Amino acid sequence: MNGSRYYGVRVEGAKFGVGFGSALAITISYSENHSILWAIIDGILSWVYVGYFALFFGLYSPEAEASQFLVGIGDGPREMGPV
Predict the structure, then answer these.
(1) What is the pLDDT of residue 18?
(2) pLDDT tens digits along 27-65
(3) Which domain holds residue 52?
(4) From CA 60, how far away is CA 53, in angstroms rounded?
(5) Which has the higher per-residue pLDDT, 41 or 71?
(6) CA 22 to CA 46: how far, in whole Å?
(7) Is residue 25 part of a domain?
(8) Complete DSSP assignment for the chain
(9) Is residue 44 part of a domain?
(10) Nearest one of 49, 52, 40 to 21, comparing CA atoms
(11) Per-residue pLDDT tens over the stretch 6-28
(12) CB–CB of 42/29 below 8 Å?
């Protein structure tokens, strides 16, 4: 044995089906637009749409954060009735 063996490794993505980028784009699109047509179009665009969403809408949403704090405001402590 000459010690200079070459071991080739072939790395492949998904051959069939939807890739992770497409699935992520479809999920984001449908949750934002509630439209199957736009979800399909954005799924075809895949990582392009995910990047667009991250750049222009980001992960921070003031409306979503504010709604988390509105639950239970002004309710005061709750008392349990007779058990």
Answers:
(1) 76
(2) 999 999 899 999 999 999 999 999 999 888 876 655 555
(3) 20-70
(4) 11
(5) 41
(6) 4
(7) yes
(8) --S-----------SSS--HHHHHHHHHHHHHH--HHHHHHHHHHTHHHHHHHHHHT-S--HHHHHHHHHTTTT---------
(9) yes
(10) 49
(11) 677 666 655 666 789 999 999 99
(12) yes
Question: Does the reported pTM lie above 0.70?
Answer: no
Cα–Cα distance for residue pair 51/46, rounded to 1 Å: 9
The count of structural domains within the chain is: 1
* Structural domain contains residue 75: no
Q: Is residue 81 in some structural domain?
A: no
Q: Which two tokens stand for residue 20?
A: 């992770």
Structure tokens at 46: 């895949």
Residue 43 in contact with residue 26, Cβ under 8 Å?
yes
Give the position of tokens 């089906």: 17
Q: Which residues are CB-neighbours of 75 under 8 A, at least 6 positions away?
A: none
